[in-house]
Amino acid sequence: MTEPLARVSTIVSSMTVSAIKEMAMRAAKMEDVASLTWGLPSFRTPEPIRRAVARQLDSDPDIGKYSLPDGLPEFREAAAKAHRAAAGVEVDADRDVMITAGNMQGLNALFHALIDPGDEIIVTDPGFASHFQQIRLCGGKPVHWRLDEARGWQLDPDALPGLINGRTKAIVLVSPSNPTGKIFSEQNLRRVGQIAQERRLHILLDDPYSHFYYENHERFFNLASVPELSDHVAYLFFSKAYAMTGWRIGYMVLPAGLKKEVLKVHDATIICRRAPIMSP
Ligand SMILES: Cc1ncc(COP(=O)(O)O)c(C=O)c1O
Description:
The chain is of the alpha/beta class.
């Protein structure tokens, strides 16, 4: 048995690598095993993206340089255009958009911007293990909003007010959800938005999966499309929709005041994320 390391962070030493990542690392050492670990698109990064990247690697002398802390203006413009088309709301690329190294990094920056030690973030349960870990890493407390299989894993907005107190900063939502695949109803999502507005909370909409549906797309409702919630919702999107999970790239659309805070976190942590592509 290896000796425990002396003087490492008590928060980190109390954590474990999630079962999904542990499985992936073990499976990588085995032959003939099927991966049932992380959620991956079944197609490869689309050809127009691969070609554009290849062209730019060849022709753009700045391709290997830092971009700005909120990302390249061209990519932010393209993200703003995509968000306008998808959510039908006005977005300003300078004011409201940040390029991220994927939703995970974007969320991490948001948690850093929101959490003081002991602050609480509400997360649906069952949920995505990394959300719980990231909140703990920032010194926060994940508050489990339990969903019930008997109700089809649907949100239960009536239970939400009882989870909110003076330390609550935000609610994390994933729809379609991981791990249940549940698409939360428009009615319930709007109710959560109303509660967040009344209690002055942020809603962090982690959206890796809205492009992955079969017959249910008309049931998907994007809470970022509600103009009255624009001061409350941060919306994160990209890598899975374009089969670019390993490229670590994404964008978030967030309230201007929150972007100012997250810029400080980017400055202190990743500096920037440069996308070698011009449009999502
Ligand atoms: C709920 C959820 N959020 C975020 C991610 C990761 O997203 P990204 O690749 O954009 O960092 C995953 C990946 O499995 C996920 O399931």
